[in-house]
């Protein structure tokens, strides 16, 4: 018995249906790939920003403890008693029994102010050095090299290479200060290293059109703190 003609038709997909299905799957895979790349970029941006913020918090807390335990000091006094030295290359801040030394972006390790004794090419970003008496801030020792055995790098917090963009300290004169104590305003900017991704003049990440590397690995942030010297045990 022969079946009607319409009962003998194949139940498979036509070529057009297969092409439409393959096109839809291709678009879906492309969308998933683009979404994955976008999520990866956001994740890397978050990691970079987190490392910069963690470094800023670490530096802020360290400076607060160090200055808080030190006796009040004069900024921009005579060269013999000055505790704060700054230049276009970097700077030094001698407080109590420790000294902070830093190089700015573009001067690591080529800058002449702050270099390690050995190896000479080792970069210095921002280090805290055991320096009783603040001898590293004396005029005759401004370019004295730093012993790495006495130094602790404060920006080594993660996988990113972080550097200092700016560091300033001043003593506000409009603030009421308790006897034996002095307030200082500390402002510093840190961020990822690389002049190809960071505009050092404006201290901002370059737009994608100007950068040779992805912005997901770029972050720059400014930190401002008020510190009181002599707040711990009368500035022992």
Overview of the structural elements:
With 236 residues, this protein is an alpha+beta fold. The protein has one domain (38-229). It is 23% helix and 24% strand. The chain has one helix and ten strands, in the order H-E-E-E-E-E-E-E-E-E-E. It has one helix at 15-68, and strands at residues 84-86, 90-95, 98-103, 126-130, 151-153, 162-170, 182-192, 198-199, 204-205, 220-229. Strands 1-2-3-4-5 form a five-stranded antiparallel sheet, with no helix packed on it. A hairpin with a 3-residue loop joins strand 1 and strand 2 (90-95). The longest helix is centred in the first third of the chain and has 54 residues, at 15-68. The N and C termini lie far apart (111 Å). The relative contact order is 0.16.
How would the blueprint of this fold be written?
Layout: H1 15-68, E1 84-86, E2 90-95, E3 98-103, E4 126-130, E5 151-153, E6 162-170, E7 182-192, E8 198-199, E9 204-205, E10 220-229
Antiparallel strand pairs: 1-2, 2-3, 3-4, 4-5, 6-7, 7-10, 8-9
Concise structural overview:
With 236 residues, the protein is an alpha+beta fold.
Relevant terms:
236 residues; alpha+beta; five-stranded antiparallel β-sheet; 23% helix
């Amino acid at each position: 018995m022969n079946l009607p003609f319409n009962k003998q038709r194949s139940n498979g997909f036509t070529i057009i249906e297969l092409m439409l299905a393959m096109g839809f799957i291709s678009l879906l895979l492309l969308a998933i790939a683009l979404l994955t790349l976008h999520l990866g970029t956001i994740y890397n941006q978050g990691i970079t920003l987190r490392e910069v913020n963690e470094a800023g918090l670490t530096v802020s807390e360290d400076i607060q403890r160090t200055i808080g335990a030190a006796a009040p000091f004069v900024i921009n006094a005579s060269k013999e008693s000055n505790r704060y030295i700054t230049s276009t290359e970097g700077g030094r801040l001698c407080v109590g029994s420790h000294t902070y030394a830093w190089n700015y972006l573009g001067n690591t390790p080529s800058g002449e102010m702050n270099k390690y004794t050995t190896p000479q090419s080792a970069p210095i970003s921002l280090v805290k050095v055991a320096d009783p008496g603040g001898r590293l801030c004396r005029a005759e020792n401004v370019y004295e090299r730093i012993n790495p055995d006495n130094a602790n790098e404060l920006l080594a917090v993660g996988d990113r290479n972080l550097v200092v963009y700016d560091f300033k300290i001043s003593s506000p004169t409009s603030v009421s200060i308790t006897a034996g104590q002095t307030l200082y305003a500390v402002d510093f900017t840190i961020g990822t290293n690389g002049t190809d991704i960071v505009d050092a003049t404006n201290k901002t990440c370059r737009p994608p059109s100007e950068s040779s590397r992805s912005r997901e690995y770029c972050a720059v942030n400014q930190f401002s703190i008020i510190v009181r010297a002599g707040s711990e045990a009368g500035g022992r």
